[in-house]
Design goal:
This protein has 3 domains: about 20-220, 2-Layer Sandwich (Heat Shock Protein 90); about 225-390, Ribosomal Protein S5, domain 2 (2-Layer Sandwich); about 410-560 and about 625-660, Rossmann fold, CATH 3.40.50.670. The protein has 20 helices and 24 strands. The strands form 5 sheets. Strands 1, 2, 5, 6, 7, 8, 9, 10 and 11 form a 9-stranded mixed sheet that branches. Strands 12-13-16-14-15 form a 5-stranded mixed sheet, with helices on both faces. A 5-stranded mixed sheet has the order 18-17-19-20-24, with helices on both faces. The protein starts with 20 loop residues before the first helix and ends in a 9-residue tail after the last helix.
Length: about 675
């Protein structure tokens, strides 16, 4: 440092964040991202899981969640109620200890809970820390007990406010909007899905969700069939190749750990993608972990052993993991007395002993099922063999596309107007609809950093070709995009290892080799343009997904109108903005004539207009394409399946459900 004030770094510079202050300072460490909605909803599940733990312990058969119109939410159960007695170490109630001390709770030994989702003991205290206010109401020991907190601080001691013969806990909290600064409203569908999952995993537990906000909704979830009903729901839009899900369960006693229980339900359909949901002590592990590794290994090994013993693999040497899992819907639920996770949000199970336990249970039980049900076993093996052949054909077509690119002029298609720079960080490529718009874009662009790739009409709907991917790679317009991007094609499979012998990262899409930092989809602002944009996004999602995950994909926003008064000219990007600009241009003169040009296509704009409105980095508006998840079985993938798949009835239902949200339909 030179002329700046010297920064002091000595003993006094070391800060200690006491109690819940650490949670407020770094909420992401405890609850997830506070800006994308995940932490907000995780607060609810932290409290809900405490109630579900009471069900696992055998003390409640219902949990109720109510969203209030003031932005708060209540979670209540009929369990034993949080202990209310004085805690000898702190001279405050046990309730206050639980609500204000991290790693405090009744889940650290076997005396209160055999298994528990909220194991780390920071859940409800972390929620309290990030709440504007929180109220706890407990029915226990013949009384009603109440206490209120503000920003995690108690506003008085726990007090008995009445008498009651019931037991249970009710917690109401309102999130602190200074922490949840972006998404501040509870999303009904998100919570409903999470609560439904909890009900599936806890047969006989009734979970209700009530929304008291405008246009209120409510749902009840009670499933006696447990995870097999869960699997049926995952497959409700697919065609299963066997009628009932396969259900297996077992347990293994592990030295110095205890008994680990495993439940798995699985059902194959004629779908292309796999759908595997992993849970530990009823908590969803979005990133899988050791139980997922055990499941994958056991499925591949068991299926190959059975197939070879019955000579069922005629033209295939062996089935890969992807072949075996193609079209599978699976729920695996592990109950562990002391699980270890990669973080407080429990997205990944890291208890290494679980993999061996899961492998042992599935190898034994699934092997027995296949021996006892040879017809179902043959259907599954035949599907895997068919998947293997289709995958080999797709791989050849993908490699051919790559080799052709290398041999033909460095891989750059002739219709591409490339940019001069070779620095991907500053380069961007516009995917433009049609030659007319492409001509304007080529003339108006910044030639140093902006490349233009015009496509002819609508590309192939890849969603309907997922079972025959060779057709996708043979499509001319798709080949053009693959060559222009220069990063390969194909989402790497879940168990892909680029270091393994015979594998190459060139075979699949590699975002590090992308020639452009921004892929910008620029289509007409009409229904056809929207359809073309969706087709391109579908292709990128299914075959170049890392580009979306890495934040490389954008949507250009061309104007809908040009408005002029004399020599003054303005652009509007919506009907509302058009009306506002018209009023501004008229000022006090209502009779003045305002020229209104409605752009039906990009080709109607001259190069200068297209640059000024849509391509100039200083003035343009770009929308980054993001997703809530990047899995084959998540919300985003299911949305593409609905919009672009073959199920017309489901698409019609989706349109009917969301028609009221359409504010500007240009036919």
């Amino acid at each position: 440092m030179t002329d700046s004030i010297e920064q002091k770094y000595d003993a006094d510079a070391i800060q200690v964040l006491e109690g819940l202050e650490a949670v407020r300072k770094h909420p992401g460490m405890y609850l997830g991202d506070p800006h994308d909605g995940s932490a907000l909803h995780h607060c609810v599940t932290e409290v809900v899981d405490n109630s579900v733990d009471e069900h696992l312990a055998g003390y409640t058969d219902s949990v109720a969640v109510t969203i209030h119109d003031d932005g708060s939410i209540t979670i209540s159960d009929h369990g034993r109620g949080i202990p209310v007695g004085n805690h000898s170490d702190y001279d405050i109630s046990a309730t206050e200890v639980i609500m204000t001390k991290l790693h405090a709770g009744g889940k650290f030994d076997d005396s209160s809970y055999k298994v528990s989702g909220g194991l780390h003991g920071v859940g409800v205290s972390a929620v309290n820390a990030v709440s504007e206010w929180l109220e706890v109401r407990i029915n226990r020991e013949g009384h009603v007990w109440e206490q209120t907190y503000a920003l995690g601080e108690p506003q008085g001691r726990l007090e008995a406010t009445g008498k009651s013969d019931e037991t249970g806990t009710s917690i109401t909290f309102k999130p602190d909007l200074t922490i949840f600064s972006t998404i501040t409203d509870f999303d009904y569908d998100t919570l409903n899905t999470v609560l439904q999952h909890r009900a599936f995993l806890n047969a006989g537990l009734l979970i209700t969700l009530v929304d008291e906000r405008e246009g209120g909704r409510s749902d009840e979830h009670l499933y006696d069939g447990g995870i097999s009903e869960f699997v049926k729901q995952l497959n409700e839009r697919r065609n299963p190749i066997h009628n009932e899900p396969i259900f297996i369960k077992g347990s293994v006693e592990v030295e110095e750990v205890g008994e680990i229980f495993v439940e798995v339900s699985m059902q194959w359909s004629d779908a292309y993608n796999e759908s595997i949901l992993c849970f530990t002590n009823i908590i969803r592990n979005r990133d899988g972990g050791s139980h997922l590794s055990g499941l994958r290994s056991a499925l591949t090994g068991t299926m190959n052993r059975y197939a070879k013993s019955r000579n069922l693999l005629k033209d295939v040497d062996k089935l890969s993991g992807d072949d075996v899992r193609e079209g599978i819907a699976t729920v695996i639920s592990v109950k562990h007395p002391n699980p270890m996770f990669s973080s407080q949000t429990k997205d990944r199970l890291v208890s290494s002993e679980v993999q061996g336990v899961v492998e042992k249970v599935i190898n034994e039980k699934l092997g027995e099922f296949l021996e006892e049900n040879p017809q179902i076993a043959k259907l599954i093996i035949d599907k895997g063999a068919l998947a293997s052949k289709a995958r080999a054909a797709a791989r050849k077509a993908r490699e051919l596309t790559r080799r052709k690119g290398v041999l033909e002029g460095g891989g750059l298609p002739g219709k591409l107007a490339d940019c001069q720079s070779r620095d991907p960080a500053e380069c961007e490529i516009y995917i433009v609809e049609g030659d007319s718009a492409g001509g304007s874009a080529k003339t108006g662009r910044d030639r140093r950093t902006q490349a233009i790739l015009p496509l002819r009409g609508k590309i192939l709907n890849v969603e309907r070709e997922l079972k025959n991917q060779a057709r996708v790679y043979q499509n001319q317009e798709i080949q053009t995009m693959i060559k222009a991007f220069g990063a390969g094609v194909g989402n790497p499979p879940a168990d892909f290892d680029p270091e393994a012998e015979g594998d190459s990262d060139d075979v699949f899409f590699n975002v590090e080799k992308l020639r452009y930092g921004k892929i910008i989809i620029m289509t007409d602002a009409d229904v056809d343009g929207a359809h073309i944009r969706t087709l391109i996004l579908t292709f990128i999602w299914r075959f170049m997904r890392p580009a979306i995950e890495n934040g490389n994909v954008f949507i250009a926003q061309p104007p809908l109108f040009q408005l002029s008064r004399g020599r003054k000219s303005r652009y509007a990007f919506s009907d509302e903005e058009r009306d506002t600009i018209i009023a501004e241009l008229r000022a006090d003169n209502e009779n003045v004539k305002i020229g209104i040009q409605r752009y039906k296509g990009l080709g109607e704009m001259n190069p200068e207009q297209l640059w000024e409105t849509t391509m100039d980095p200083e003035t343009r508006t770009l929308l980054k394409v993001t997703a809530t998840d990047f899995t084959d079985d998540g919300v985003t993938s299911n949305l593409f399946m609905t919009l672009m798949g073959e199920d017309v009835a489901e698409r019609r239902s989706f349109i009917e459900r969301h028609a009221a949200q359409v504010t500007n339909l240009d036919v």
